[in-house]
Amino acid sequence: MDAGGNSGGLPVNNKQRAMLPNKAKGEFTRNPRKDSEGLSESPDLEFKYADTDKWAAELSELYSYTEGPEFGLNRKCFEVEFKTHVSDKKWTELDAAQHRAHAMRLLDGLEVIARERRLKAARAILYMAQGTFAECSSEAEVQYWMRYNIFLLLDVGTLSALVELLNMEIDNSAACSSAVRKPAISLADSTDLRVLLNIMYLMVETIQQDDPADKPEWNSIRETFRAELGSPLFNNEPISVMLFGMVTKFCSGHAPHFPMKKVLLLLWKSILFTLGGFEQLLSIKVHRRGELGLPPLPEDSIRVIRSMRAASPPASASDLIDQQQKRARREHKGLIKQDNLDAFNEKDPYKADDSREDEDDNDDNDNSMEPETFPLERDEVMPPPIPHPPSERVSFPKGLPWAPKVREKDIENFLESSRSKFIGYTLGNDTDTVVGLPRPIHESIKTLKQHKYVSIAELQISKEDEFQKTPLSGGEEEVEMSSTELLYQGILPSLPQYMIALLKILLAAAPTSKAKTDSINILADVLPEEMPTTVLQSMKLGVDVNRHKEIIVKAISAILLLLLKHFKLNHIYQFEYMAQHLVFANCIPLILKFFNQNIMSYITAKNGISVIDFPYCVVHELPELTAESLEAGDNTQFCWRNLFSCINLLRILNKLTKWKHSRTMMLVVFKSAPILKRALKVKQAMMQLYVLKLLKVQTKYLGRQWRKSNMKTMSAIYQKVRHRLNDDWAYGNDLDARPWDFQAEECALRANIERFNSRRYDKSHINPDFLPVDNCLQSVLGQRVDLPEDFQMNYDLWLEREVFSKPISWEELLQ
Q1: Cα gap 559→275, rounded to integer Å
Q2: N or C: which end of the chain has fewer CB within 10 A?
Q3: pTM score, two decimals?
């Protein structure tokens, strides 16, 4: 891909072509690069962020290419069993009663003692869940039969049988010890687990796809399935907690044969299905704000982000060197009239009017670190206007995309500083008294109060403070047993270990990680028993391994983001507990390390072979694979899963650092600014928004020189990120820019979290002083008192010494 972004076969329309530098005029030249490191201009990526990719893509990512031969094996197991009972018909020709009867027979096969027969029954059920593809002629038909068969399997009670078998396999000590002793683990070591996880994943992935044409009974099956997945029905814990246990067991080295990609995918989809995706999160938030009597949200954040346009990325170092060399060569051309300069600089590209012409004309010349090039250097005084059809303007309203927000704390700080300046005294937390302040301050306070935003988290914190202050009069807290609450209670005892395990796997799967002897082996479910012998097989395995790692990163990033968002909405201290353990486990430097690579080449990577993806490969004749076809890859502009992973990781980083000055300083200490600035090369609005947010929080600490040489980035922050009135983010003149004790901030937060968890979940350590007193004599005497064993042995001696040998004055006692 060259500077024009068109050598890679990407479509460039007239508008983008007009934005490209004119090589014929010698505006700048660049060494041809294999990757996109020197890329200053590339087309916008047509990427739509969602909870998941398309259904077919999500199904295909479950299987590694090494598992290809198992499709035929599953089919064979099903047909052998099917032909013994129904010899003259196909599965697709049977009626509903016959379908149900055969499904029940297969379910009975899961309960036999012989392991081999159990595996054959499980493979037959897997073939049903895969849509009995041998009898289908198209992918749409496969998907129809997948839905039908999976609803049938759930209706006959397959889930509980699968969970029991999965529990047996997790506790299978023989398989674990065998895998630990093996020098090289392959697909064959995890066959039983993979079959069970495949069935469960297909169930969750298929059932969460809501189809208006579904029968009413299917809708009730879906809701029952959702409730079962989120409830502690199996081993008194939700299925998600069982899967988290598999992750920690794998990372501890006790079960290196676990197919981790499938476990993580099933964990992600279970959380997504039981708790809800981003659309549901927004509706829960709106509903919760209404219940608490808070004003509605100022805008629909999902809609705003989808309507944003990507900004032109800052210039790369090679561009700047080229510009400086040309300027040195052309300085002898003489002075330029001031009129021409005024005419050229007349347009301000960052007015509130976000019109397309302004940004397009200035995309190449208002670079972050380069001074403006003179008009004569461009062989023209004024750039020619670019015609645009009027329809393009409609979806981009004037002004900034976000309504500004103000916190109560900001209003208090503003009033206190105004009072001490004009009156000479302060009033504490009073935000109403404005006596003695000048008229403009009154107007300022009025504006601030108009944009005041009270979050759910602030109310939860104040309510928790009340419970801690008044444990007796505060009463009992009513905790709604939602799916999020049940999941938090399930993972609470081992949450730190779960976070460390997820980050360990993320580190092993990151493309920037070097292979180390102590790192965990995440390729157990992709490496074949016999290693490849030909170049073609090696290339195919190389693609498979890279794809495998990308899918693991995608699943972990989605799991972490979903949990953080749901916990934050359920209770702020649940979110803070998880976030703090992620920070303690070095999540911040890990994500920065992930982005410290050529991010454009990661996003445009083509680690996929579409002709052997499921379900395409089971309904079409497969063409012969060649080295050329593998190298070419598919003809997509970007890799959906990699862009999705990058956005998720940036959102996680934002969640961890927002309003936490100690963590923001970690971003500064780890020199994240140049890493994040390189990520702006990706022309996708949502990704750029979260990069700019991360740059905004640390701008005040980066120094004047950085701000001066990155004015384009500063302008993009102003244009695209929400404004906090009174937030001096660009200059660092406020209190937060001064030194403070980072450790004290984290320790105070940790103490609050521990008090919350202890009060709400640790019933064994209730303070006896706060327990109600029992005044009923019958009740007190009726209580069972467990006496120690030595007391029982010496009871007669105690009676003699304490009772019989002491004279009792009954008159005094009775009085």
Answers
A1: 11
A2: C
A3: 0.81
Using DSSP's 3-state secondary structure scheme, residue 756 falls into helix
Residue type, 258: F
> How far, in Å, CA of 51 to CA of 529, rounded?
35
Taking the C-alpha atoms of residue 132 and residue 93, their distance in angstroms, rounded to an integer, is 12
Angle at CA of residue 66, ends 65 and 71, nearest 5°: 80
Q: Which positions ≥6 away from 374 have C-beta within 8 Å?
A: 336, 341
Cα distance between residue 303 and residue 313, in whole Å? 23
CA distances 115 to 125, 126, 263, 525, Å, are: 15, 16, 22, 21
Report in angstroms the alpha-carbon separations of 198 from 74, 427, 750. 12, 64, 39
Bridge partners for 237 per DSSP:
234
**How far is the CA of 171 from the CAs of 177, 249, 644, in angstroms?**
11, 10, 34
CA–CA separation, 386 vs 392, rounded Å?
13
Asked if 445 and 434 count as a contact pair (C-beta separation under 8 A), the reply is yes
Q: Which residue has the tokens 């007190």?
A: 780
Angle ∠(575,202,117) on CA atoms, nearest 5: 120
Tokens of 196: 């069970």
- The backbone region for 209, taken as left when phi is positive above 0, alpha when psi lies in -120 to 50, beta otherwise, is beta
**Joined tokens for residue 92:** 């697709």
- Distance separating alpha carbons of residues 518 and 449, to the nearest angstrom: 55
Distances (CA, A) of 533 to 68, 101, 364, 536, 537: 18, 46, 50, 9, 7
Question: Tell me: the pLDDT tens digits for 535-565?
Answer: 888 999 999 999 999 999 999 999 999 999 9
User: For residues 421, 426, 430 and 431, what is the CA-based torsion angle, rounded to 10 degrees?
Assistant: 10
pLDDT at 782 over 60: yes
- In angstroms, the Cα distances linking 801 to 284, 331, 722, 791, 796 are 68, 113, 80, 13, 9
Cβ atoms of residues 659 and 697 within 8 Å? no
Report whether 2 contacts 42 (CB < 8 A).
no
The answer to whether 439 touches 455, Cβ cutoff 8 Å, is: no
Tell me if 28 sits within 8 A of 316, measured CB to CB.
Answer: no
Q: Are 249 and 258 in contact (CB under 8 A)?
A: yes
* pLDDT score at 627: 79
**Cis peptide, bond prior to residue 615, ω within 30 of zero:** yes
Mean pLDDT across 35-64: 78
Please name every residue paired with 405 in a beta bridge, in sequence order, or none if there are none: 724
Tens digit of pLDDT for each residue in 695-715? Answer: 999 998 888 899 999 999 999
Q: Are the beta carbons of 687 and 44 closer than 8 angstroms?
A: no
Look-up: residue for tokens 């499921």?
A: 614
Element (DSSP H or E) covering residue 550: helix 535-570
Per the CB < 8 A criterion, the answer to whether 578 and 563 are in contact is yes
Task: Report CA torsion sign: 180, 181, 186, 188.
Answer: negative
Name residue 228's amino acid.
E
Q: Which amino acid is at 795?
A: Y
